[in-house]
Amino acid sequence: MSDLLDTNETPAKELGPRPGLAPGQTVWELLAAVSPRIKDNPNTYEAQQLNRVSLDQCVKCTICETMCPVAKVTPLFSGPKFVGPQAERFRNGESVDHTLDYCSSCGICTLNCPQDVKIAEINSMARAVMKKDHMPLRDRLITQTELEGRLLTPFAPVANWALKQKPIRVAVEKVVGVHRDAPMPVAQSQSIKGWLKHRKGPAPRRPGQPDRGPVVFFTGCAGTYFEVETSKKTIEVLEHLGFEVLVPKQGCCGLAEQSNGLFDSARKRVVKLCEQLNAAGKELTVISSSGSCAGMIKHEAHEIMGVDDPAVRSVGTRMRETSEFLLDLFDEGELPTDFKSLEMKIPYHAPCQVKSQGMGMPAIRLMELVPGIRVIESEENCCGIAGTYGLKKEKYDVAQAVGRNLFEKVKEHNEGLAVCDTETCRWQIRNSTGVSTVHPVHVIHAAYGLSDVFSPEV
Amino acid sequence: MRDVMVIGAGLSGLVAAIRLRQAGLSVALVHKGRGGLQLGQGTVDVLGYRPQRVARPLDELDEFLADQHRASDIPHPYAHTGADAIREGVRYLAELVGEDYLVGDAEVNVALPTAVGALRPTAYYPPSMADGVISLDPAKPGALTAGSAVVVVGIREFKDFTPELIAGNLALNDLPGGGRLEARADWVSFPARDGEVDSTGLNIARALDDPARRGALVDQLKALVRPGETIALPAVLGHEDPAAFADLRAQVGSPMFEIPVPPPGVPGMRLNDRLTRIAKEARVEVFLGSNVLGADSAGGVLQAGVVGTTGHDTHLKARAFLLAAGGFESGTLELDSYQKVSETILGLPLAIPAGELIHDTWAGQQPLFSVGVATNDDMVVVDPATNKPVYSNLYAAGGVLAGAQRWDEKSGEGIAVASAVRAADAIISNLAGGQR
């Protein structure tokens, strides 16, 4: 007892700097110096603290558990609350529940949380720690989306042939760990850069349309090399509406690396990309038809990887989804709606990373401005692919089970076309349903009479 | 510009949004997460206690409100809505979701067995609870009466439902009309997924959505039920398939009912999913996962809600606004460490009872819970100091309203639907007036 009192009565003057803390050194830096676990932690201290703060808001209501598309179909994942807000308290930097590896990072948990707990963010950060020392080679390879595009484009016919050969896919599965039936992009002979270089100037404006000034278009890796039609059609619709579309040299946003826990390299990529997009104009609206890449720049770079960079912040605040941008124009009375009628039912799936942008589902309202179109929303949380998740041999079956209801709904309701805003989700839906699946801008392009709605999907 | 922006997707937000949309208005429904309806029991409480148990809520409303008026200077939400809006709200909800989801009568309460074996009064309930109804109206006997035999059946793999506790307590209750139930406990085994020893209620419900899985449960129930007995099970009998319960009951061939369990509560989820689907199909524009950060106003009129879209704010313009974001449970109301209560979305003035807000009487009413926004009879938010509208086009409904002790009174859903239809109808008639 007296010992305790003595301690409490230690005079203030004897309280110097804490032992071991060098002048100007933060507690975090000190801990990193003495603890390899913290030193090797791929998360930034700030991001970790920010997301941990939200833990205290968890009231254990289980809404995230009920919404999780992965926990719904497999017992291999114990669910977002159990691996997240519950396990986080015991984590001290390391995950205590390794089923976390089965989280697909779709973010549906955070989206549905009524208490603002950053469940998906906490879990993504914990996974980066968990995988730190045994990152599969496969996860390093499949995250190199830009490289893949650059390598495949010159050999598109050969690459597309090879990717359809079962023996080759089996070998790839055995050596690399990419499932033999997983959806693969279709390589194109011409990237969007090649198309821009060779086309004869911008598409004509609509008759009588005054100039609306410049906007920047962010193509995304998939939109550059694989889903080239989406990029072309976005550019042409914007030009039709009177915008000058600037497409600066641009790299990858790092999303695939982020979702696989490769934070250091993902941070560098997203910063570099935003500097490139900024180079086209620091005040201009940046438009993207790559739903998930836009999400990465708008919030995941910041909220998961702790990127606090002026270029990323600036681009993030100016970036708009194509449907969001066009619908904003409509709400301001600036979108011509002399669409030609397209009598069709269109199944539509809003990808997780578009849902998580807090803007509702602008694609539905936008497409239904076209006379004759009735959109059937999938009402499913996720298609299963979650970027690179559904490609992995050990997760392929889970991803297919996640998407099953969606696939059935698409098959049941389509009249030759399904719509989804994100590239990898489209590959998944196409691969699992056999239905042509396109970005919403494809429909708008056709409704303005610029193409047939059944023009090539990629 | 939209006609109406509704903030919050609980029961009041969903019901109001659908009613506004059905009247032809364009509606944006903005909410930061899934609403609280999913966490509820899937029943509709109108007025359960005042403080004695209420048998006929609408008949007893005037007396209840008179007592409220004597006890507090803050009017109860029912004083604004009146009995007609309660009647209309409950009728509207029941008709929207249909008889597969809700049955009952707003005029007469029933008592339903709970997960601790108590009897809880409510007005509407899912048809899967009908065989467990104990009438509070002597003229209309319910499914269970004095001497009825109930077997409460637990599922080994489901930890939130203890049949011995429930059966033991249930047999101790004196029924409203006199007499008691006979109750015993029994167990079955039903792992939701192969090898699971600890299944969530939702996973069991999902397993039972598959007709091929039902047989295993049916066989065990048939083996244990005695002639004349009613089976009570946890409320996990199917999630997405509204016919799952009826099929199980028919296959077993005995009366059977569900008892609500702690979240994830399947009956609340069924109701929430149903209403959300109706809203979306009617093209209520739903913004999920979007915090409302504030609003733009000019000259006492709200012009736009500031929605925290990722990366930037969206100023969502509308002609009328409905705050239906719930109370303390959702974070719309907040108490800070200085005992100051605030409304966190729009910074509205609040009606706060005089005196101490929290006292240490266990299980007693806490004055804090009656804090909320004040309204007039059109559910337009008013400053309680002046009784003047804060904004001429801002309405409120549901848990954010001042003056109720929802948990004690068992009035939450009744207030939600009555205020929702009242506010929606006022908005519809005001906007129509504005158009002329």
Task: Please give a quick description of this structure.
Chain B: Its EC number is 1.1.5.3. Chain A has helices at 2-8, 27-34, 36-39, 45-53, 63-67, 69-73, 80-88, 108-112, 119-131, 137-142, 145-152, 156-162, 166-176, 192-198, 220-225, 228-240, 255-259, 263-279, 291-303, 310-318, 322-331, 352-355, 362-367, 396-413, 423-433, 440-447, and strands at 213-218, 243-246, 286-288, 319-321, 344-349, 373-377, 418-420, 437-438.
Task: Provide an overview of this structure.
The complex is a heterodimer of chains A (458) and B (436). Helix content of chain A is 49%, strand content 7%. Chain A has 458 residues and is an alpha/beta fold. Chain B contains ten helices and 20 strands. Chain B has helices spanning 11-22, 61-71, 77-97, 163-170, 201-208, 211-224, 244-252, 266-281, 406-409, 412-435, and strands spanning 2-7, 27-31, 103-104, 110-113, 119-122, 124-125, 134-135, 149-155, 182-188, 229-234, 256-259, 285-288, 292-298, 301-307, 314-323, 333-335, 341-343, 374-375, 381-382, 394-396. In chain B, strands 1, 2, 12, 13, 14, 15 and 20 form a seven-stranded mixed sheet that branches. In chain B, helix 1 packs parallel to helix 10 and helix 6 runs parallel beside helix 7. The longest helix of chain B has 24 residues, at 412-435. The interface between A and B is large, with 36 and 38 residues.
Outline the fold blueprint.
The complex is a heterodimer of chains A (458) and B (436).
Chain A: H1 2-8, H2 27-34, H3 36-39, H4 45-53, H5 63-67, H6 69-73, H7 80-88, H8 108-112, H9 119-131, H10 137-142, H11 145-152, H12 156-162, H13 166-176, H14 192-198, E1 213-218, H15 220-225, H16 228-240, E2 243-246, H17 255-259, H18 263-279, E3 286-288, H19 291-303, H20 310-318, E4 319-321, H21 322-331, E5 344-349, H22 352-355, H23 362-367, E6 373-377, H24 396-413, E7 418-420, H25 423-433, E8 437-438, H26 440-447
Parallel strand pairs in A: 1-2, 1-3, 3-4, 5-6, 5-7, 7-8
Helix pairs in contact in A: 7-9, 16-26, 18-20, 19-20
Chain B: E1 2-7, H1 11-22, E2 27-31, H2 61-71, H3 77-97, E3 103-104, E4 110-113, E5 119-122, E6 124-125, E7 134-135, E8 149-155, H4 163-170, E9 182-188, H5 201-208, H6 211-224, E10 229-234, H7 244-252, E11 256-259, H8 266-281, E12 285-288, E13 292-298, E14 301-307, E15 314-323, E16 333-335, E17 341-343, E18 374-375, E19 381-382, E20 394-396, H9 406-409, H10 412-435
Parallel strand pairs in B: 1-2, 1-15, 2-12, 8-9, 8-10, 10-11, 15-20
Antiparallel strand pairs in B: 3-6, 4-5, 4-7, 13-14, 14-15, 16-17, 18-19
